[in-house]
Amino acid sequence: MTPQQAGIGRITAAIVAMAAMLPYLTLKIFWLTGHPVGVSDPAFMNDPTMVGLNAMTFGMDAVALLLALAFTTRQGMRLPAWLVLLPLWLGTGLLSVVVVTVPAGVLLTGVSVFSTDGPIAPWVYMTVYGGFIGQGVGLMVAFVLYARDRWPAVFSTTLGSGQASPTGPFQTVVARGALLVSAVLGGTRLYWAAGNPVPVQALQDGFKGLLALGAGIALVLLVRGRGAGPFWPPLVVGWLGTGVMFGWGLYAMILTVTGGPLGARMTGVVGLVELFGTLTGLVMAMCGTFLLTERSGVGHLQPAQDPLEGEDREDDRETADHGHR
After folding, report:
1. Distance CA 289, CA 293 (A)
2. In Å, how far are 30, 57, 143, 270, 276 from 246, measured between CA atoms?
């Protein structure tokens, strides 16, 4: 069938996300071209590590911009599933923490949460994190509406409606093992949150801890595949939890390996939690990919267009079908 045209809700959410990305992308262009806007020490942005990190984050946001644009078109419905799901999984994992914790931090401590002793001006942090919140909300809403149109079965089936999976025993072992590890990781972060006097850091650790625990439980529920409850709620929790664990853990590992002026090396217990969070999130996501791919009527991860159809026509299907009669 012809791919469904994007509705006004999906288009509006995607436009909001794209508009929110522009200030961040503009700052990155300035910094990468040698114009330290909002930075009191030009040498800070000229450090090779900062140049590399700015180039990497610029590329990530550029990909998000292209995906948001794709959500507004029919052609976006034909993109390979992995090309949509992989960057959105990583992006929503990173942005969801900002969307939840930054507004809560502002409510608790005011705009002083953006004040630092570093070379970057507070208005830069306000601009960047404000943009992250806008693009995070816009991207998530646009993606949900896109997924509802492209994979409607995900939102209409129950946990117990799937068929037997050939890799079911393997998925069960992975899910139960991941639950144990995610419980330790989540519990550790909740312990840190309870004893952290800095509100924003406590909020971040608490949110990450809850999502780690939730992702472990959600994966077990999805793999068991029993009951009449809807399929999508544990899928959403598992999606966000694994994305947060992998995305933020990978970011911490990159900072640790590269070092540089950010000085955010993760050592000791903190480093182990970030490392195991990265690995556990990746393993859980791979298990979820097997589950979705094999689940009858839910794991149909193909482009929406029928391979026998033309771009905007239905009548060429008749010719193709006639040749096989």
Report:
1. 6
2. 29, 16, 20, 15, 9
Backbone dihedral region of 181: left (phi > 0), alpha (psi from -120 to 50 degrees) or beta?
A: alpha
Higher-confidence position of 118 and 64? 64
pTM score, two decimals? 0.88
Which tokens in the block code for residue 149?
């149109």
Q: In the beta sheet, which residues pair with residue 230? A: 158
Q: What are 232's two structure tokens?
A: 């999508």
**Amino acid type, 70:** A
Least confident of 20-29, 59-68, 85-94, 250-259: 250-259
**Strand-pair partners of 158:** 230
Task: Burial-class residue 312 by CB neighbours within 10 Å (0-12, 13-18, 19+).
Answer: exposed
Mean pLDDT across 280-284 = 98
